[in-house]
Amino acid sequence: MDALFSQLFAGLSLGSVLLLAALGLALTFGQMGVINMAHGEFMMAGAYTAFVLQWFVPDAGVSLLVALPVGFVVGGLLGLLLEVTLISRMYRRPLDTLLVTFGVALVLQQLARDVFGAPNVDVRAPAWLSGAVQVLGMNLPKTRLFILALAIVCVLALSLVLKLTPLGRRIRATVQNRDLAETSGVSTRATDRLTFFVGSGIAGVAGVALTLLGSIGPTLGTNYIVDAFLVVVVGGIGQLKGAVIAAFSLGLLQATFEYSTTASLAKVLLFVVIVAFLQVRPQGLVAVRTRSLA
Amino acid sequence: MTAHTSPTWAARWRALALSATAVGTALALSACGGARTADAAGGTAAASGGTSCVETDGDTIKIGFLNSLSGTMAISEQTVRDSLDLAAEEINEAGGVLGKQLEVVGEDGASEPTVFAEKAEKLISSDCVAAVFGGWTSSSRKAMLPVFESKNSLLFYPVQYEGLEASPNIFYTGATTNQQIIPGMDYLKEQGKTKVFLVGSDYVFPRTANKIINAYAEANGIEIVGEEYAPLGHTDFATIVNKLKSSGADAVFNTLNGDSNVAFFKEYKNVGLTADAVPVVSVSIAEEEVGGIGVDNIVGQLTAWNYYQTVESPTNEEFVAAFKAKYGDDRPTSDPMEAAYTSLYLWKGMVEKAESFAVADIQEAADGVSFDAPEGTVTVNGDNHHIAKTAYIGKIDADGLIYPVWESDGPIEPDPFLEGYDWAEGLS
């Protein structure tokens, strides 16, 4: 029974990591149709931000809390730069964005390698996140609870922005019908830039969070980019709701498979399930209704 | 839906997403491809003849250094190249080998086994080097082996590996399994550990190692309470650590490679497992990796190697000082680096004993050649071309260095096919 609950939590936790990695993509890929292969490298930038900040802020706890907003800005600015210089030239040519951003990803990885060195670096975890909370006889690691909470906060904040703010309305209008939005006075260029800033910023936050779990090195992004795309595709293009459901479903499935078989086999089984699912439902779990995507 | 309508947007999106996923997967795979991979097959192939073009009349003698200076293995192999360069420099300053200065031809194996094979061929055939030093992954060694055998040249390979191999054209100066894995298990047994959990990356080295550990455990009254493999590059260890924790293990034997170690040790600490209660013995974490994992996450854990920077001997003090003087105080020395450094001196010893640079003469002279290495005295075994090495179990300290807590009674004779162990019968 303990094992069952522990695994349930492991699945939720994995889901929250996937969600953080995929949330920004759900905006930039899902809403804007840009296949941004450099998304993982924005996460890497967030992780290195946390690493650099701990030089200046010696208290690990404070430095982590400072790193979250700073990571958002760093990731966001990188995304903005990418959007303005390259991606703005190739909206509606998604395959080209794939190639271009793939190149950018490689450049960013090498840049990280030159600046920080090839070996992994270490970000110290704050004392208040060490150890585990005892619930019903289970150990719930505090770092994973923190990431779960962070994922929830990010989803809520993002959906509030999309639903309630003028920016959100403009984004939704642009996604649903770019031309009509333009004629209604929405500056789609400005909207594109802001959307990209927010999406990439969330990648930066995800990167900061990942420093609590895994390695911080130049290839951090490549560890997560495939999973992030999977979440968005399974979730359905253009809907945050889909990404949330998909991330937690995949996390739980992976944990279940991994517990009953092995880690390698679990990965294979997960892909089999995803392929089968996409045969039945190519549009993903939740698909936005629109006439303008074509 | 009919078959001839133009694809729906959903279908197009799916195609795009799949291609994105495919590129991403390729990326991920290429990122993981650098770790040691090999098959356990091997064996002794007879050296076939081959005409040597090695120039021995001049004041210099050419040797080849072949390491990955680019690609995923560059992080590790650059350190090996650095220590090889140091050894060559020292030997030249001391008068060279048989009065000839070493002329090093450096090549980049680029983390690709096929490139290693090509460059080895080039070093032997067009650069006419007397011997080649390098290689790291087992797959690179396996790719080079036929080249060295068909050209009848010599390779000195410096990294611990999964054993079950012996070629007359390769000298193995890293540990074989009975010099690293078995001492690791001996230590756990000595500490009264009876329930061991095995965790490793999913490729041949860990699987071979764990096969040996399973046989050892059965013969020594130790229970293997779990055996888990994670794909190379795996970064979420929640489930594996959950299984580990509920298995009741009192020790862990870790053959994970690369980044996975970081995620594993962070998770290990997160769930409240400690080095005191359930120690982890690792065989692929050396001094350079400790910092990246985070000393806090791994302090007190154990490693099994044949060398640490902290080994106390005058020879090691000189080696460490020379290395730091050349490359900087912040650079630690590690086992594969030391084995590479030693390999050059062993070759020198063999050449001087044979009084010849010819491969056949060196093979003949090899047996019993010994060197006072930083790790302790090492001696070449002429039968299997491995060397007798001292085994150390080390504990990772808060300063990021590894300090020996146990060492074998003197050098352990290499036994790559584990012929000297009754319980290992049928493994190879």
Automatic annotation (TrEMBL), chain A:
Membrane topology classification: Multi-pass membrane protein
Biological process per Gene Ontology, one example term: amino acid transport
Chief site of localization: membrane
A Pfam family recorded for this sequence: BPD_transp_2
Signal peptide: none
Source taxon at top rank: Bacteria
GO molecular function, one term: transmembrane transporter activity
GO cellular component term, pick one: plasma membrane
Cellular location(s): Cell membrane
Keywords linked to the UniProt accession: Amino-acid transport, Cell membrane, Membrane, Transmembrane, Transmembrane helix, Transport
Family matches, as PANTHER family: ABC TRANSPORTER PERMEASE PROTEIN, BRANCHED-CHAIN AMINO ACID TRANSPORT SYSTEM PERMEASE PROTEIN LIVH
Protein name, as recorded: Urea ABC transporter, permease protein UrtB
Organism name: Cellulomonas flavigena (strain ATCC 482 / DSM 20109 / BCRC 11376 / JCM 18109 / NBRC 3775 / NCIMB 8073 / NRS 134)
